[in-house]
Amino acid sequence: MSKYTVQQHSVETLLTWVKTGQVAIPEMQRPFVWDSTKVRDLLDSLYNGFPIGYLITWQSADVGLKDGSKSSFRQILIDGQQRITAMTAALVGQFVVDKRYKRKRIKIAFNPTTEQFATLTPVIDKDSAWISDVADFVNATSTFSATKAYMDANPEVDATHVEQALQRLSAVKQAQVGIITLAEDLDIETVTEIFIRINSKGVPLSSADFAMSKISSHGLLGSNLRKLIDYFCHLAVAPHVFSDIAANDTSFAASGYLPAISWLKNDNSDLYDPTYTDVIRVAGIKEFSRGKVAALVSVLSGRDFETRTFSEELAVESFDRLERVLLEIVNQYNFQQFTLTIKSAGFVAPRLISSKNALNFAYALYLKLRTEKNLNEGEIKYVVRRWFVMSLLTGRYTGSFETAFEADIRRINDVGALQVLRDIESSQLADTFWNVALPMEMESSSVRSPYFLAFLVAQIHGGSRGFLSKNVTVGSMIEEVGDIHHVVPKNYLIKQGLNDRSDYNQIANFALTETPINIAIKDKAPGDYMSQIDAQIADGVLRLGEITTDLELEANLRVNAIPASVRTATSESYHAFLKERRFLMAQVIKNYYLAL
């Protein structure tokens, strides 16, 4: 059975489908990302008969909507949204939405003498040689009258040449565009594979893009849910656009969903700024126990996974559930309590979080546990904190993370989150992990290593002071200004012949410290700068930092996992020092995890 059909349709036919809603164009309600020069170039290609690439649509099922109407087998445009939007804007005169969610016109001018297209400017608008707005001309009641008006304004032009150019311009709407329509019964994996094979650049289409298009095609409810996701994600990053959304999308403002996200206009936290892909993943895990976005699209299409059949009732029910979970996701209390839970584990800045997937699963887990009410709030936060850190330390949601999502949520459904967490801890976080595996994993030179970040988080959680600092905490330096200092200084090692960056930039040679301390140490050997600390402890004269007692120094070295051998560390003993410190850092992380 053929998986698709290929047909040629005129631009005019295609634009009629868009205007009548036969083709769902969700991006028409989202910020238009093309600049006007790309719109100009697209018109130029149509005018000259150049191909503009195939558009790809996916036939949606005939699903009953809440208002009693049917979706009427609308085609979901899965590739070509920007081209369709550009044609609709330039040839029909339809407004687009800019990045501030304001409606605006994109006007493209045309010069019949030179046969050039250009973005309309005030100068061009005053020049009679140009037709200021192509849309006005091609949609004129009489192109003959429009042509005559141009001739009257420009009597010196070559009439024959101009008439031919304007006839070609008028014929742009008859230009043929190839449309590939994918069969309605294809699963999303097949649709994605088809897209990759026919796309000249070989760029895979995101499953989340399919999901967003699928959501948007489900009548007014779907359109509003799509906007709810988009606006929530946009406001999380740019709270100031709330007034623009409220003023410029009056239909959404009247839908009742805008108040659900209005709290974001006063929210300045950036610890968790989910994208629409993240929101879809959280919704799929929490509400549908589906780790794969493709499976969520199938559910929203009305697929019954047991009978492998289509059910209109299931599609309607799935959208009702989607609406419910999205309102849970964007709920102010839920979102802020979750981010507070993550912060309480020491993650005070987004750069400390090495896996967005781990954060997404943790939020889905938090919502699930709150809904089920099997645990109290304190127990929920305990499970979520430890699950999140566990997943970072074990790399649980790297690689085939969607499969891991699904396996974990199904196991949680069966025996409960607390039991699953205990099982994972006993099998993957036993003494061998802390004493052997983790120190080995820390043999890295990347400051983005999840293990170095986990060490910093452990310090923040414990309120640790920076290396050789008496008063300034690691947490305050992460939030404000601090230096990543080489415990055995880089320049010292280089002078001693250790020139390999992967050697002197080992994370076990890193510690967060105040900038003045880092500058004062410079390239001194550890024994030399530690002698300065000893001297100021003896006489009270500050030379390096503010530590003035043996107890303060001992405590500082302990929380920074600095072994006593730092006093005698040289280029010859450097690797032994790193091995010893990796073990101590792992123990700091272990104690932190057990204290969560």
Automatic annotation (TrEMBL):
Domain GmrSD restriction endonucleases N-terminal as annotated: residue spans? 16-214
Pfam families given in the database record: GmrSD_N
Q: Which InterPro entries match?
A: GmrSD_N
Report the protein name in the record: GmrSD restriction endonucleases N-terminal domain-containing protein
Organism per entry: Microbacterium aurantiacum
